[in-house]
Automatic annotation (TrEMBL):
Keywords: Hydrolase, Magnesium, Manganese, Metal-binding. Mg(2+) binds at residues 7, 34, 147, 149, 247-248. Probably binds two magnesium or manganese ions per subunit. The record marks 149 as: Transition state stabilizer. Its EC number is 3.1.11.2. Coiled coil: none annotated. The record marks 218 as: Important for catalytic activity. This is Exodeoxyribonuclease III. Residues 4-248 form the Endonuclease/exonuclease/phosphatase domain. It comes from Croceibacterium soli. The gene is xth. It holds the Pfam family Exo_endo_phos. One of its GO terms (biological process) is DNA repair.
Length: 257
């Protein structure tokens, strides 16, 4: 069972590339971030044409997440990150798929820092940790995927100095991510690539893709029940190089059924 994550950076602008990736790689579950559309304009029918059913949480022009499942409906469980009833940003969705709880998130960027956006990021990460601890306590197979907007370690970025002042790499962001892992989650890509050097994002500016100036911010976290079933994980890097591509590449993890 392959569970994938893809920050599509605008589902309307990237729909041809997204459909192309789905048909060529055929993940069982595809979690999307930054769909950037309202609920009523989500192109569910386009995915149904190729056999995928969807659950989504949209927002006009910003954010937005969706879970696509090959051949069946995802059973949506949670719509929005719990913990702050005033937070209306569409960044979080959970669904049950074939006995696995799938959590899809788009974590706040936090720039510029310091400032209110960075404070929101850290508060969001604390709420996320609380929710994920609740899921761990249930001891059921769970996979948490998405754009975390955190570069966990120096080995996860092409240049430490170039990103030193970015919210993605601040000590507070890294510490919050490390606390989540410390609760019992396995970072699939880091586990299988202990030397680092694996990127999931390349900026559109300054020839970052052509120069391979990237970093890793798209993560796949496994609960103990799914970490024992992991057989592979990777990055579909070539899709970043295609025409009108997202600035992220898809990432995925394979677990035994």
């Amino acid at each position: 069972m392959r569970i994938a994550s893809f920050n599509i950076n605008g589902i309307k602008a990237r729909l041809p590339r997204l459909l192309e990736w789905l048909e060529e790689t055929r993940p069982a579950v595809a979690c999307l971030q930054e769909i950037k559309c309202q609920d009523e304009s989500f192109p569910a029918e386009e995915f149904e044409k190729i056999g995928y059913r969807a659950a989504w949480h949209g927002q006009k022009g910003f954010n937005g997440v969706a879970i696509l499942v090959d051949g069946e409906d995802p059973l949506e469980v949670v719509h929005g990150l719990p913990g702050d009833p005033l937070d209306e940003q569409a960044r979080f969705i959970e669904a049950d798929v074939r006995g696995v709880r799938v959590v899809n998130l788009y974590l706040p960027n936090g720039n510029p820092q310091p400032g209110p956006k960075f404070d929101y990021k850290l508060a969001w990460m604390e709420r996320l940790r609380i929710r994920l601890c609740e899921l761990l306590e249930r001891e059921r197979p769970t996979v948490v995927v998405g754009d975390f907007n955190v570069i966990p370690e120096d080995r996860d970025v092409w240049s430490v100095s170039a990103m030193a002042n970015d919210a993605l790499m601040q000590p507070e962001s890294r510490a919050a991510y490390a606390r989540i892992l410390g609760d019992g989650w396995t970072d699939a890509l880091a586990t299988l690539n202990p030397r680092g050097g694996v990127w999931t994002f390349w900026d559109y500016q300054a020839g970052a893709w052509q120069r391979d100036h990237g970093f890793r911010i798209d993560h796949l976290l496994l609960s103990p029940e799914t970490a024992d079933r992991m057989v592979s994980a990777g990055v579909d890097k070539e899709y970043r190089g295609r025409e009108k591509a997202s600035d992220h590449a898809p990432v995925w993890v394979g677990i035994r059924d």
